[in-house]
Amino acid sequence: xxxxxxxxxxxxxxxxxxxxxxxxxxxxxxxxxxxxxxxxxxxxxxxxxxxxxxxxxxxxxxxxxxxxxxxxxxxxxxxxxxxxxxxxxxxxxxxxxxxxxxxxxxxxxxxxxxxxxxxxxxxxxxxxxxxxxxxxxxxxxxxxxxxxxxxxxxxxxxxxxxxxxxxxxxxxxxxxxxxxxxxxxxxxxx
Length: 190
Description:
Mean pLDDT: 91
Number of helices: 2
CATH architecture: Beta Barrel
CATH class: Mainly Beta
Radius of gyration: 20 Å
Low-confidence stretches: 1-19
Number of domains: 1
CATH superfamily: Lipid/polyisoprenoid-binding, YceI-like
Shape: globular
Helix content: 10-25%
Distance between the termini: 44 Å
Oligomer: single chain
Strand content: over 45%
Order of helices and strands: HEEEEEEHEEEEE
C-alpha cells in the first residue's frame, strides 16, 4: 500500500511537471510578415504588407496551450506605391495618425490531435475590437542551426469584414467588405 501511495505521488509530480513546460518566444521580425488582400472593382487584387511588427508568444507543446500578441505599425503599410501607402495611412482607411497599431491578442490555441488547427483571439483596428480566428495552414517547431535555439512558427490566415471596424471607404462604389489577412510568423525561444 505504501509503495502504491509513493508511486501515485511520483506520477502526480511528473504530471504537474509536464504541464509546466510553457516557453516564451519573441517574434522574429526577419521571418514574420503580415500581408493583406482586397479586391479592386472585381478586376484585380490589391495587396500590401506591414513592414514593422512586434510581438511575443507563449507556447506549451505538451499542454497544447499558448498565448500570442502581435502588433503591426499602420505607418509601415507598404504596397510598393507611395501614394497608395499614404492613402491607406489616411483618415479614410487606417487613420495611422490616431491609430498607429493594429493588434491581435489570442484567447485560445486549438489543436486537432497534435497539430495546431487555429488560434482564436481579438483583433483591434481603429480602436474597435472584434473576435477572429486565424486558421493555421502550416505550423512547426524546429531547432534553428544558426541561432542555436528552438523556433516555432507557421502560416495563418483569416478574412475580416472591415466594416465591423469602421473601415467603410469605397463600400458605396462597390469595394468589397472582406479583407484577407495572411500572417507568416516565426518566434525564437527566449
